[in-house]
Amino acid sequence: MEIKRVYTFGNGKAEGRADMRNLLGGKGANLAEMNLIGVPVPPGFTITTDVCNEYYKIGKEKVVELLQDEVKNAVAYVESLMHSKFGDVENPLLVSVRSGARASMPGMMDTILNLGLNDEVVEGLARKTDNPRFAWDSYRRFVQMYGDVVLGMKPENKEDIDPFEEIIEEVKKAKGVTLDNELGVEDLKELVAKFKAAVKKQTGCDFPTSAYEQLWGAICSVFDSWMNERAILYRKMEGIPAEWGTAVNVQAMVFGNMGETSATGVCFSRDAANGEDLFNGEYLINAQGEDVVAGIRTPQQITKIGSQRWAELAGVPEVLRAAEYPSMEEAMPKIYKELDAIQTKLEDHYRDMQDMEFTVQDGKLWFLQTRNGKRTGAAMVKIAMDLLRQGMIDEKTALKRIDANKLDELLHPVFDKEALKKAKVLTRGLPASPGAATGQIVFFADDAAKWHEEGHKIVLVRIETSPEDLAGMAVAEGILTARGGMTSHAAVVARGMGKCCVSGAGALNIDYKNRTVEIDGTILKEGDYISINGTTGEVYKDEVRTQAAELLDDFAELMKLADKYTRLKVRTNADTPHDAEVARNFGAVGIGLCRTEHMFFEGDKIKAMREMILSENAEGRKKALAKILPYQQADFKGIFKAMAGYPVTVRLLDPPLHEFVPHDPKGQKELADAMGVSVEYIQQRVDALHEQNPMLGHRGCRLGNTYPEITQMQTRAILGAALELKKEGISTYPEIMVPLTGILYEFKEQEEVIRAEAEALFAEQGDKIDFKVGTMIEVPRAALTANKIASKAEFFSFGTNDLTQMTFGYSRDDIASFLPIYLEKKILKVDPFQVLDQNGVGQLIRMATEKGRAVRPELKCGICGEHGGEPSSVKFCHQVGLDYVSCSPFRVPIARIAAAQAAIEG
After folding, report:
1. Which terminus of the chain has a smaller tally of CB atoms within 10 A, N or C?
2. Strands in 552-607 per DSSP E
3. 100-125 pLDDT tens trace
């Protein structure tokens, strides 16, 4: 059967419909649908997205050959409806050529209007319409657009002005006018002649005069624009696959530039910025569509209320507004009434906020496009909940309308939009933790703490961070690092704190000695102001004004709705009572990962910890651990209290010991003095802790098995805190987690130490408490032998950061050196440390869960890596049958929505 590549629409009929967007693109599918529901749409045809893929496979010439007959037949169909002929001098049909991918990509690809004009046809159009100015204005616009898009008439470098705009400015200056629409017919004729001469000079070719040559040039240019730089970048940002391709829409032209009874505009059925249920938009009289978006002329508001709001902001008095800048509602009341009725009809039909383009030709309204409008996170939530309350959608649809990741916008401080427009971008890194931060540059954590105490707002700038930097990170407005990926220490900790963070900004040359950072020639000193955007990864010079995000009632209502449908529980990764409270307020129902190592870097704790590590024997270690015990117990008590009534999973000490000891001479001397030993002794002990590959070395359960006294102290601190709270009438559900288990016997050894210490503590206290002992599955061998491990472990928590690292053999701290190339070459589709690898790592999770539950049916399973807050990963966890996901506090709402969506999708 012959493949159909072209679909026509017009006069209330269409070969396509709304549910064919994958084939016809969003624009083509909606043009067909609007025809079918009686909206006035200029007739035309759509070349499918499949042809775009053919274009890149077999090339331009073969595609044109394949399309030849279908396109000519489709043009004939449009000619019959418009009662005019393509390329005819006396009764010409002109067309527009636009792109249209299945996902909306506003402004990313190319458009050409008024196609079909040449020196003879323009005269025929002038006679037919009795409007020479309109005809020549249309012609000069066509030559300009076609020259730019198809013939490549671009500025030679970024400093140069557009070659066509340069000519327009020259002619306007010579005529003494300021606006394009003040040019007369002879001026427009002069512009066309100069435009064509410029084309000949720059390209060496004459401007094409054949209508079909123009049409094929435009169609191929739209396909070419699918692979232009801005389209590629946009697809990367939005996660749109290149293989989707774009459709091409060819439509009969309708003209908004035929005089004072003609206009063009863009409108929205609701406010895309805040979600307000208010029809709004902009229009221009005697103009074409590009004028509205290009900002050459200042457009006017469509509604009277919109116009009055604009005037208030612009400081324009009401009398002047009504006279000089009237709304369409006031200036064209009949057209406005029709426009308002159709926008209502379209929103009711699609049951979502619509973004529409229209043209008024000589008093007749035509719709050129409708699509579900792009919107901010705040607008997304409000529109979904309003549509639900208005009975236009049901609860499940409201939840499915939420892009879980966009909730981030509601939870973190944001930059003021006006301030952002004036900000100077220095470089871009990875958007590791969303939000906006502005402050003075500080390079060291201890200095950060001092500056903070003195009342400064600071941004911590590091080559990379380690747990030792925690104090500085805690007081910083934001964190900027030269190295590290989306799951680097800086990124993970920042997200946990709800701190803005940009990591892996490779252009940063940090000189710790001189306390300077050089970024592409700009040198900044400690104390200079800098601003970072954790949502985009951009780094700005100087201060940029921020504003706090406000959570609205609709957000709370949405979360309640999510809970109604979800099965998968959402916990949080929290190491402090503050983090636990933040997460609980966002709806977390427990802690899935409490990391004990971060507690050791405060005040006297670090001294005792270092003393323990550098002791020569178990006796010395126990003595030092006895000093740490009360601190640890107090920390756990605060966390358990903040999460009262919910389970808290505490991971026993995990990092290699070398991370806790001082590596600088000053720190080593201070420690030697405190311990009453020589600096040489400290240096020897520090050197002895050095490992070639510490992340695969002496860490996790290996530490607990070689130094069981550490596990004993931590068990006593965890359960001692729970017993204290029991006396206060507060319910706690402690879960002790053994990290980095690879072999059943590693876990068994630790479990015996934990249970023995618990029994000793319970005997001393004369009281007991229920608790669970489980393990973190982050070594592939543990997943493969999960049935054996489950014979002893009461729960599994998948540490997907390490599990990903060990499954792929990628170092998560060094992946930034090759990840961009892997993504560009499509070796990897996404960063596996951000989005769970369902085919590899995911299968280990599935297997371990099934094997574990085969031995222990009630085995509780969850994940606690950063993937716990990534929507597609959360949905996978639901499918596999996990009990919970655990993520950073500020990602809890995102995970809750994703969990509800997973339950609805089934």
Report:
1. N
2. 569-573, 591-595
3. 999 877 666 778 999 999 999 999 99
Buried b (16+ CB within 10 A) or exposed e, 797-821: bbbbbbbbbbbbebebbebbeebee
Write a three-state SS string for 674-732.
HHCCCHHHHHHHHHHHCCCCHHHCCCCHHHHHHCHHHHHHHHHHHHHHHHHHHHCCCCC
**CB neighbour list of residue 536: distance below 8 Å, 6 or more residues apart:** 428, 431
Q: How many residues does the chain have?
A: 906
Give me the DSSP letters along 119-170. Answer: HHHHHHHHHHHT-HHHHHHHHHHHHHHHHHHTS----SSTTSPPHHHHHHHH
Please enumerate in sequence order all residues whose Cβ is within 8 A of that of 560, keeping only pairs 6 or more positions apart, or say none: none
Average pLDDT on 826-832 reads: 93
- Count of CB atoms situated within 10 Å of the CB of 259: 16
Choosing from 412, 489, 598, 658, the catalytic residue is: 489
User: Pick the catalytic residue: 267, 500, 501, 864?
Assistant: 864
489 an active-site residue? yes
**Residue 790 to residue 796: CA distance in whole angstroms:** 8
- Say how far apart CA 683 and CA 614 lie, in whole Å: 10
Helix/strand/coil percentages in the chain, nearest 5: 50, 15, 30
At 819, which helix (H) or strand (E)?
Answer: helix 819-824
Looking at residue 290, its pLDDT comes to 66
Helix/strand/coil for 519: strand
Query: Which residues lie below 8 Å from residue 754, measured CB to CB, with a gap of 6+?
Result: 711, 715, 736, 738, 773
- Rounded to 5 degrees, φ, ψ at 649 are -95, 115
For 341-370, the three-class secondary structure string (H helix, E strand, C coil) is: HHHHHHHHHHCCCEEEEEEEECCEEEEEEE
**pTM of the full predicted structure?**
0.81
Secondary structure (3-state) at 545: coil
Q: Which amino acid is at 699?
A: R
What DSSP state is assigned to residue 484? -
User: Going by C-beta distance under 8 Å and a sequence separation of 6 or more, which residues neighbour residue 756?
Assistant: none
If one counts every other C-beta atom within 10 angstroms of the C-beta of residue 564, the result is 11
CA angle 166, 170, 172 (to 5 degrees): 115
How far, CA to CA in Å, does 743 sit from each of 519, 775, 803, 887? Answer: 47, 11, 15, 27
Residues 6+ apart with CB under 8 A from 319: none
211-225 vs 49-58: helix crossing angle, rounded to 10? 90
Q: Which residues of 598-614 are buried (b: 16+ CB within 10 A; e: fewer)?
A: bbbbeeebbbbbbbbbb
pLDDT tens-place string over residues 648-675: 999 999 988 888 888 888 888 888 888 8
- Per-residue CA distances from 67 to 62, 240, 599 (Å): 9, 26, 68
CA-wise closest residue to 409 among 379, 450, 430: 379
Which alpha helices (H) appear in 586-707, and where do they start and end? Answer: 603-614, 618-642, 665-675, 679-689, 701-706
Active-site residue, 864 included: yes
Distance, CA of 362 to CA of 487 (rounded, Å): 59
